[in-house]
């Protein structure tokens, strides 16, 4: 496919899992991809995959939970490619699960907010003038079904993802005049962490798959990545400010309560 030919896309947190699948899908659609992550070794792996597709791709190591690093990522990408058309804010660290009443929540909230909500704001702020120069762009932020339904023991993650909804709507409202669309996706797909979880408890993994009307888990490239390609293409140029579930319909049934911690007695 060449529907994204000539476009430059940044994908944060794209050295594994959903981010990697999205990066590969964008490259297959003709985009020049700027992959990102904290690990140079993992960066080499995703660059190997992108190299097989062909095109002008690059890996930039940066920890987007640090404001200066997030901004440097976008600036280096623009300096290399000369433009920024697509920004995929996929990166998100996840602190250990804990009850709300337990100690240490401030640190977990700070870490999770910085890597998700603030990182998405910082990268978008720097990308904005480049997108305005070329007459428009596409920004995709990431939410979660966990935030929508308030999954237990993940208050830091849930709050971050729901705050992303408000940030996305405001970006869309303020920046639509520049031809920039801003949407949020709420994906459910296989990631290294989720795959490791399934390996430890296959029966629970199968039960979770049955929670999807499609009766399977999403695939990072073919399901999540392909949907993102459509959302950032010209075919979706009039879609903005939306929160789109990419979860095989799992949201229709609510949230399966497979908790890491036992309920208090």
Automatic annotation (TrEMBL):
Transmembrane segments: none
InterPro entries: NAD(P)-bd_dom_sf, Sc_DH/Rdtase_CS, SDR, SDR_fam
GO BP field: monocarboxylic acid metabolic process
Superkingdom, taxonomy of origin: Bacteria
Family per similarity comment: Belongs to the short-chain dehydrogenases/reductases (SDR) family.
Descriptive protein name: NAD(P)-dependent dehydrogenase (Short-subunit alcohol dehydrogenase family)
UniProt organism field: Novosphingobium fluoreni
């Amino acid at each position: 496919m060449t529907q994204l030919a000539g476009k430059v896309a940044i994908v944060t947190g794209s050295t594994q899992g959903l981010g990697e699948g999205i990066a590969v899908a964008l490259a297959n659609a003709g985009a020049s991809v700027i992959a990102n992550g904290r690990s140079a070794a993992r960066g080499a792996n995703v660059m190997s995959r992108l190299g097989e597709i062909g095109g002008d791709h690059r890996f930039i190591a940066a920890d987007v939970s640090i404001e200066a690093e997030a901004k440097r990522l976008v600036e280096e990408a623009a300096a290399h490619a000369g433009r920024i058309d697509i920004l995929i804010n996929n990166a998100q660290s996840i602190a250990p699960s804990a009850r709300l009443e337990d100690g240490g929540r401030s640190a977990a909230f700070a870490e999770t907010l910085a890597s998700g909500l603030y990182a998405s704001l910082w990268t978008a702020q720097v990308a904005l003038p480049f997108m305005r120069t070329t007459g428009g762009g596409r920004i995709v932020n990431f939410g979660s079904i966990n935030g929508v339904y308030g999954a237990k023991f993940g208050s830091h993650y849930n709050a971050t993802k729901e705050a992303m909804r408000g940030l996305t709507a405001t970006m869309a409202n303020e920046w639509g005049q520049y031809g920039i669309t801003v949407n949020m996706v709420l994906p459910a797909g296989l990631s290294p962490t989720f795959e490791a979880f399934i390996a430890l408890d296959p029966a629970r993994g199968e039960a979770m798959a049955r929670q999807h009307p499609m009766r399977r888990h999403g695939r990072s490239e073919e399901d999540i990545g392909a949907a993102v390609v459509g959302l950032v293409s010209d075919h979706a140029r009039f879609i903005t400010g939306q929160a789109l579930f990419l979860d095989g319909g799992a949201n229709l049934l609510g949230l399966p309560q497979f908790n890491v911690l036992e309920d208090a007695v």
